[in-house]
Amino acid sequence: MTSLKNGKSSGENGAENPIAWRIAQMQERVRSAKEQDLYLYLQPAEEVDGAHVVINGRRMLQFASYAYLDLLGHPKIQAAAHAAMEEFGTGTHGVRVLAGTTKLHVELERTIAQFKQAEEAMALSSGYVANLGTIAALLGRNDVVISDKLNHASIVDGCLLARAKFVRFEHNDMEALERALGDAPKRAGKLVVVDAVFSMDGDVINLPDVIRLCRKYNAMLMVDEAHSLGVLGETGHGILQHFGIEDQDSIDIKMGTLSKTIPAIGGYIAGKSDLITYLKHSTRAFVFSAALPPPVAAAAKASFEVIEAEPERVRTLRSNVNYFINGLQERGFNTLKSETPIVPIIAGDDERAWMMAKLSQDQDIFVLPIVSPAVPVGTSRIRANVTAGHNLKEIEHAMNVFEQAGKAVGVLPS
Ligand SMILES: Cc1ncc(COP(=O)(O)O)c(C=O)c1O
After folding, report:
1. For site-directed labelling of 60, which of 17, 35, 252, 276 has its Cα 20 to 30 A away?
2. Is the CB of residue 152 below 6 angstroms from any atom belonging to ligand 1?
């Protein structure tokens, strides 16, 4: 079958109306996948909790969500959202700098700053816009932004939006990063941007070396903690805690989302006061876009407090991650260099990944395929996310289902 690629082909260039051609191509790919009963995206959930999802009346074990610490539905978070709804309603009718700031937004930003050991923080309407807006706001025409090749799309889009020179270095390759830094003009402003945990592969950036190189070449460092907040470090404080790095200022721009471990929506930037003041007045996505709804701000703040109060969730997650990765590897799967809850199970070509996901869903394990161009050709995969909400029996059962599916499609010998 055809996969849902969005790539160019000769047809596009030759088409009379390339826009209409592109739309028709996608329509055809989706139609073809649906016809073969292999279209697995956008399925509406009828019920959701941390470890389960109900789709089409079927209760499935959830292995596709980012609910790393199983916080969705936590009574303290629910109560905070309800109280905020009572007090402020569902929206703010304003952007933050004008009518949109409530005391809840200020309290959320104070809580984030404290959690991330930064002087100040700012909250934006999503992690995507936090990356896009911040990178574009910081860089000027003569600057250079240097980005890991596997960084998230929102970082890539921010780099494209900024008018600076955009350089990408081989994934987690410190020699390549040093070359890129060395090649940048001496007087140019330099910004290095990396994910802490890479969202497709689940591996961790070599942060100590990135920090060393940024210092050596006088570059600012921005780290996206979308998948490390609540996940890395003994108490879930993130990548600096993971590496035991005490100097909190070794990351200039600490970015994260309120949509993965935190069961809300939004993104944040934390750092020095002068940086946050600058960003609050020059990030177009902050200045010209509405504030987070108050119940969301309150839920996010309460979530940070729950992470602090219930550190056992982080320990459960860590032991589940180890159990899951070891079990998959023992069964013969290639899980790349993942050491986090994001576990790629490499299938190879797109078709095998689609089939593995479909067979798993048929056995009530909800997992999704990730195919090219989201990942390099030949490394299509199912991406299975384990959380603190799973118990060992559920993880074992899911691994057995993946093993059967892997054998059925020829990823594992039968
Ligand atoms: C590494 C990374 N950064 C940023 C984002 C965007 O965050 P959000 O979904 O909160 O907009 C994502 C989302 O998947 C991500 O994986």
Report:
1. 35
2. yes
Q: What is the pLDDT of residues 294-339, one digit of tens each?
A: 999 999 999 999 999 999 999 999 999 999 999 999 999 999 999 9
pLDDT tens digit string along 46-69? Answer: 999 879 999 999 999 999 999 999
Does ligand 1 lie within 6 Å of residue 144's CB atom?
Answer: no
Domain boundaries 35-64+312-409, corresponding CATH code: 3.90.1150.10
Choice between 38 and 7, residue whose per-residue pLDDT is larger? 38
Which structure tokens are listed for 124? Answer: 């934006």
Q: What number does the ligand 1 atom closest to the CA of 66 have?
A: 14
Q: What does DSSP assign to residue 5? A: -
Atom of ligand 1 nearest to the CA of 195: 1
Q: What is the pLDDT of residue 319?
A: 98
- Whole-number Å distance, alpha carbon 216 to ligand 1 midpoint, is 29
Q: Which of 112, 102, 110, 54 is nearest to 304 (CA)?
A: 112
199 lines ligand 1 (CB under 6 A): yes
Q: How far, in Å, from the CA of 171 to the mean position of ligand 1? A: 18
Tell the burial category of 22 from Cβ atoms under 10 Å away from its Cβ (0-12, 13-18, 19+): middle
The CA distances from residue 90 to 39, 86, 160, 192, 368, in Å, are 34, 9, 34, 37, 32
Instruction: Give the fold, CATH level 3, of 75-309.
Output: Aspartate Aminotransferase; domain 2 (3.40.640)
